[in-house]
Amino acid sequence: MLKRRAYEKxxxxxxxxxxxxLLVDGARQVGKTFLIEQFARQEFAxxxxxDFLRDAQAGSISGAxxxxxxxxxxxxxxxxxxxxxxxLVFFDEVQEAQNLVTLSKYLVQDGRFRLVMSGSLLGVxxxxxxxxxxxxxxxxxxxxxxxxxxxWSQGATDSLITRxxxxxxxxxxxxESLHDQLLQLFHLYVVVGGMPASVQRYIxxxxxxxxxxxxxxxxxxxxxxxxxxxxxxxxxQVTSIYxxxxxxxxxxxKRFKLRSLRKKATYERYANxxxxxxxxxxALKTVNVTEPRSMLRRTEEPNRFKLYLxxxxxxxxxxxxxxxxxxxxxxxxxxxxxxxxxxxxxELASAGVALRYHRHSGRGEVDFIGETxxxxxxxIEVKSGKTYKRHVAxxxxxxxxxxxxxxxxxxxxxxxxxxxxxGKPMHYIPLYLVPxxxxxxVAEDIGAREELGRLGLSERSLVIPPPDLSRLSx
Length: 474
Description:
Blueprint: H1 6-16, E1 21-26, H2 32-43, E2 46-51, H3 58-62, H4 67-78, E3 87-92, H5 99-110, E4 114-118, H6 122-125, E5 137-142, H7 147-153, H8 158-170, H9 176-192, H10 196-204, H11 209-230, H12 235-250, H13 267-279, E6 283-289, E7 300-309, H14 312-317, H15 321-329, H16 337-350, E8 356-360, E9 364-366, E10 368-371, E11 377-382, H17 392-399, E12 408-412, E13 417-421, E14 424-430, H18 434-438, H19 448-455
Parallel strand pairs: 1-4, 1-5, 2-3, 3-4, 6-8, 11-12, 12-14
Antiparallel strand pairs: 6-7, 8-9, 10-11, 13-14
Helix pairs in contact: 1-2, 9-15, 10-11, 11-12, 12-13
């Protein structure tokens, strides 16, 4: 059984949000259904699951127009009493029964059971919900396993994770023997990826990467089938973009080139197709910001962007076997820049960090740029080869005083070290420490309590009394 960080979010919802239903979003096959069923068995006396894609009787449930008729049909379908206060109802593949998302508000108010909903392509399909129950719904997003979760799957202990976090916090080198072992595990993660089916196949097949590639091929075909089914008349265009991502990442400038789709293609013509892939969680979009200053969102350029695949393993499956062999062997002469960037994008996204980069005709391009919890801009460069200390664009950013950038990070296969550039620290960290780097950055899609926890503040920090107006006259 794979340990997932999202389980803690389910526990948080149960304890803190009895007045809300829970909607679990995420790409196809990232483990949503399995985790919710595990949660239901362990945390509730009883649970009821309705799969609107596979259950023959589910149509009668989706046709309900009010709480009374829904409970009547649900209890008939399961064949026993729904015990008030002790039952979890799980609506799976809810994109096939969108009226229930609207109805969830009233189900929560009814109070007889806790409600969890999940499904595939919710970012695409739920746009048509006629009344979204704002205030009565908590939304959590699941991603493929990040590297820390992958380490758990390979037997890593909590003490090892804590030890690595200390190395990151203190910016002290990791012992060379441990560093080498962690690099090997990172290379393995790049090839296997974070899709639960791929990770489990690797474990069950006793390390057979050929079997993993078979699983990844099936996943890619499933994603293509979803595009054909749900993308409508633009399915061919969406598929073309999806299939073109690996070749785009091979280029030195990894910004997505529209002319690869059509000679005179414009962003406006394909904007909805790109957004379809991003909303379906099949791709990760990283947008350019013109100014590396705090409040990065202000200067985003939506039409200048890079696209990464949502899972590094599915990306590697699109390349020939020798590429995977080179990664596993740690051949540093092979250019894996785009592949490693994809992994870093995946790590940042799973931590809730908005994906942005910075490109300037004079200063050059920096792979990722974020904002720290202290409100400072932090540029990040990803390197795959031996020349990881060549980073002109990063040096240029640090040298511009008006930007107020205090430090930068270079992520590579090298051990932890620090040097000065333009009189400011340039921190070099190994790729396996990226999960801790991600936690330094502002996560824009987390709840207020989680944000306060990352800042080390009490929940009472949000309690701000209104001004006392009683002494004002006239």
